[in-house]
Amino acid sequence: MMKMPAIGLGTFRLKGEPLVATLNTGLELGYRHIDTAQIYDNESEVGQVLASTSIPRQDIYLTTKVWTSEFGPGKVIPSLKTSLEKLRTDYLDLALIHWPSPKDEVPMAVYLEQLAEAKAQGLTREIGVSNFTVAQLKEAIAILGPGAIAHQQVEIHPLLQNRKVVEFCREQGIALTAYMPLAYGKVLSEPLLLEIGKRHGVSPAQVSLAWLLAQGMTVIPSSTKRENQAANLGALEISLSSDEMAQITTLDRGERCANPDFAPAWD
């Protein structure tokens, strides 16, 4: 089974030709990890790229996420089969529940058991969740058993460090992907990150990514510009000192970028 590469191409808010061009550039630069979701309405474009690239499917780590409308009895697996058709592949590397069911309209056991069944059927190599609180993660583990949930994808960046969730995932051996790792560009004007970046001859964005990567997290920044995609990959080469890591920790302000009205009661 392919291990998830530490940096992936996020595709949120990208569609059509711009997305196809972005993914092709990313693959050319060396990215081997693509993150999409049913609600992004762009799985077909991702599929187009997967079908046309010379890179073998087994060398690309592919994640999609099941939307909340597909949680009811008997719905998760057909929705994933539709995703696979659009993505032009016969398996996912990772299938995630995108958000917990709003107001628990659908009991968690209903959709998580279907997700586990999707894995048993070979539709996906691994399963996980996204945007779950500690309480919801505990409930999920109680439903599927320890070790079943391989992954949690959640918003993490220097301005929102989500420490309770991070700590709990670490205790449980659940891998973490940090989405919106640049806080929609907010980190770019952060004086401390600018200062650390200057010291290393890199950008504040690269410092933010390096800080997350140093903690063993995966990052999925989205960028349409070749130079930004290349710079993001360059974050893998940056080594921050323990002092610098600690300084960045002081930036936590609980500044959340993704907070829809159906979000859970965050930790």
From TrEMBL:
Keyword Chloroplast (UniProt): no
An annotated GO BP: methylglyoxal catabolic process
Keywords for this protein: NADP, Oxidoreductase
Domain NADP-dependent oxidoreductase stretches: 7-252
GO molecular function, one term: methylglyoxal reductase (NADPH) (acetol producing) activity
Binding locations of substrate: H98
Highest taxon in the source lineage: Bacteria
Pfam families (UniProt xref): Aldo_ket_red
InterPro entries (UniProt xref): AKR, Aldo/ket_reductase_CS, NAD(P)_OxRdtase_dom_sf, NADP_OxRdtase_dom
Positions of the catalytic residues: Y40 (proton donor)
Catalytic activity reported: hydroxyacetone + NADP(+) = methylglyoxal + NADPH + H(+)
Coiled-coil region list: none
Record-marked site positions (Lowers pKa of active site Tyr): K65
PROSITE patterns: ALDOKETO_REDUCTASE_1 (PS00798), ALDOKETO_REDUCTASE_2 (PS00062)
Annotated NCBIfam families: PRK11172.1
Protein family per UniProt: Belongs to the aldo/keto reductase family.
Protein name in the entry: 2,5-didehydrogluconate reductase DkgB
